[in-house]
Design brief:
With about 120 residues, the protein is mainly α. The protein is about 75% helix and about 0% strand.
C-alpha cells in the first residue's frame, strides 16, 4: 500500500503506473483468497481505466478479465461469464486488443472447465 500511496501522491491516481500497482495488489489479494479486498480494488482500477483509457483499451479489458477471475474463484459463475462477454466486445480490433480478446477466450474456457 505504501508504494500505491506514493504513486498516487507523485504521479496521480489516474496514472498508468499507479493503476498497474493497484491491479497487482488486487491480484495478490485474489491469490490470498481475500475476495472482498480483491474485488473492491479491481473494480476501482477497472472503473478508472474506463474513464481514462476507454472501454476497449487493452488495460481496461485485462482488468475486466481479472475481475472475472475473482468471481470465478468464488464460484460466482454467472458474474464471471458476464464479465468475460463484456470484455470481448472488441473482437474486430487488431494488435493488443486482439491478444486481449484471445486471453479472454482462454479465461472463459477456464471458467467453464472449473465448474
Amino acid at each position: 500500500m505504501q508504494v500505491i500511496e506514493t504513486e498516487k501522491r507523485v504521479l496521480g491516481d489516474k496514472h498508468p503506473d499507479t493503476l498497474t500497482s493497484m491491479a497487482n495488489l488486487a491480484s495478490t489479494y485474489r491469490k490470498q483468497g481475500r475476495w472482498k479486498e480483491a474485488e473492491e480494488l479491481c473494480v476501482q482500477v477497472m472503473e478508472m481505466e474506463k474513464r481514462v483509457l476507454g472501454d476497449e483499451h487493452p488495460d481496461t479489458l485485462t482488468s475486466m478479465g481479472n475481475l472475472s477471475l475473482i468471481y470465478r474463484d468464488q464460484g460466482r459463475w454467472k458474474e464471471a461469464e458476464k464479465m468475460q462477454f463484456v470484455g470481448c466486445g472488441s473482437t474486430g480490433q487488431r494488435g493488443k486488443r486482439q491478444k486481449v480478446v484471445v486471453l479472454r477466450e482462454l479465461q472463459r474456457a477456464i471458467i467453464y472447465t472449473t465448474r
